[in-house]
Fold this sequence. Notes:
By secondary structure, the protein is mainly α. The protein has one domain (9-297): Rhodopsin 7-helix transmembrane proteins (Rhopdopsin 7-helix transmembrane proteins, Up-down Bundle). It is 76% helix and 3% strand. The protein has 10 helices and 3 strands. It has helices spanning 19-49, 56-82, 92-125, 130-133, 136-162, 179-185, 191-223, 228-256, 266-287, 290-319, and strands at 9-12, 89-91, 171-172. It has a 3-stranded mixed β-sheet.
Amino acid sequence: MEKINNVTEFVFWGLSQNLKVEKVCFVLFSFFYSVILLGNLLIMLTVYVGNLSKSPMYFFLSYLSFVDVCYSSVTAPKMIVDLLAKTKTISYVGCMLQLFAVHFLGCTEIFILMVMAYDRYVAICKPLHYMTIMDRERCNKMLLGTWLGGFLHSIVQVALVVQLPFCGPNEIDHYFCDIHPLLKLACTDTYVVGVVVIANSGIIAQVSFVILLFSYILILVFLRKQSAEGRRKALSTCGSHIAVVIIFFGPCTFMYMRPKTTFSEDKMVALFYTIISPMLNPLIYTLRNAEVKNAMKKLWGRWVFWGAKGKELEVTIQGG
């Protein structure tokens, strides 16, 4: 079928059609997005200022926070503004760019979580060789691999959608551009495209989750031979990571390991990996990690110190 594209923009239905609900959601998600920005930026600043980036775990944690900020910023600001808008529109080009960014950053986050799981496996199961295996050069290569993997995945997704004809209607029952809602609007048979989407997105999410699960099973088996104190410390370190993995992968599996169908619950499920997960990540890692909390206390102490010194200098100048 020759590509016929009469659609120059798409119209989002948004989270709700009820004006009162939209106003409540505006306040709620504005707060959530502020927490995402402040929490993740604080972790990045703490890792940098506290000189924690020498440790591979915190090196990857800072990049996870960076990806979370970028990932949520692709959808949240537009969604928040649309909650007060009468017509929620996005251009065709803007929709394709948003689709690319969502899958690029989402897939990159999946791969970063896998790298972080490998880091914990090496740290717990091979502690004597940890710094040799996880040296800075290897960490940089693994980080580059996460970005390249996310890029390749996203390019495939966008290439599948761009070649589809859209001849109307142009209303998307969602708050951002995603694969399944767009396939529903295409005026051609999208069965083959739907299968490729499942093979691309779904298998990446599912295989990654299985690998992560297997890595933690290996860690738990290894910990059986350790002392109670050693098990406690190791499980405390891994606990936060496991929580993040479950919160992120559960909704992703529901969204992409299924045929090209849409459900009314999709928007609520999507909120978990676009808003809730990026918001909870800094809270989970901060509350369960003593080293991050200590670094934040030191950072806060520096701010208080420099604030006091600034006031003293101001008083001295005024007195002079």
